[in-house]
Amino acid sequence: LDHFLYRDGHAFCEDVPLATLAEKVGTPAYVYTRATLRRHCREFRRAFAAHPTLPCFAVKANSNLAVLKDILAEGFGADLVSLGELERALAAGARPAELVFSGVGKRPDEIARALRVGLLSFNVESPAELELIATLAGEAGVVAPVALRLNPDIDAKTNEKIATGLYTTKFGLPEGDLPALATRIAQDKRLSLVGLACHIGSQILDIAPLAKAASRLAEQAQTLKTAGHRLSFVNMGGGLGIRYRDEKPPALDDYARALIGAVAPTGLRLLLEPGRVVAGNAGILLARVILVKRTPVRTFIILDAAMNDLIRPSLYDAWHAIEPESTKGTGAEAVCDFVGPVCETGDYLGKERRVKIPAAGDLFMIRGCGAYGASMASQYNTRPRAPEVLVDGDRWQIVRPRETLDDLLGPERAALAEGPLTS
Ligand code: LLP
User: Fold this and answer.
1) Mean pLDDT calculated for residue range 134-152
2) Which of 9, 222, 288, 334 lies deepest, with the highest CB count within 10 Å?
3) Ligand 1 neighbour 151 (Cβ under 6 A)
């Protein structure tokens, strides 16, 4: 259940007609519902209420400051993977003690800044990274809190591009490395081992691999505790899948029960890094039909949104529901491909959809775009990135304006004006 719905045959976001937004903001545009975002945050926290838990929203899923601010206000921390995301979280009012920094390739400047800010932990993914953090902490005269990220070599049974729990991927540390690294940390005054972490993938629909990873992580935490390491948390990452079409993701309560069941015996606080499950179904991409084109074998509905606005169909073969703004269309039903204007055959938003053939100017909403939609958008084909709109009841606000061609061309024009190359 979310807050995109039809009234009298027209699509609304909460109490705002999508047609009104399209007219006032233009298309394509991302539209988010605050009510759904809040509900997802609250349901997530309620599901984990039985155990001390800090959910840290994965900023990569939706990095908009207004969205982050709402999520942080629900008692979430944030999971970051870059300096940019750190600055976003801080700008949105994050508490540094509720921030975790993930990623296999944190740069020295990123680590240095994070050390100055004072995060809850760095999720460490390699011995080389641990050494770098130690050096930079020494230089800064601070103690770096680190969590070792376990790669449990578990198949999360999701799209291979977003599965991260196998040894064939670049993520995490093999189990066998943990004891020696923990000892290494304990002997270094610049480092403090505060926890263990794990994240086996995204859009996971089967609870078994998540439960298995949680048990393995808890087991490792117990071993380290027994060896005298004073951990304060285990971080089970994100990855819970959502329904885009007819998927049956695990219920939040079952997910929580499995994770808490594994972690509770350790007595440690549970950290999580949910992204998609919070934001995914809280947003749509609103697009307008430019024209309809028929070839001998296909009917193409050419939208003003394209793969640069939403790359998930092209990149992961992801399926997003595409629904008309008005159910009152009178066109004949046909099987159509929804595509954008970008010059690639891979530029599609939905294939083989049975719809009433629309007219130029008609609006469609592409569902499930609140996570990994705007945050993955590009300017390919010199298409300015679409704006983001946040709706609350019958009110709305543009929380990121549409980029202009000046935004895109300005810096390059200035470079041209600067004259010839120099050495
Ligand atoms: N923690 C870590 C360390 C991660 O790498 C990720 C996602 C998350 C948490 C959040 O996972 P979530 O709860 O959202 O599944 N662009 C892809 C998804 C990439 C996920 C990358 N890591 C997509 O559009 O499906």
Assistant:
1) 98
2) 288
3) no
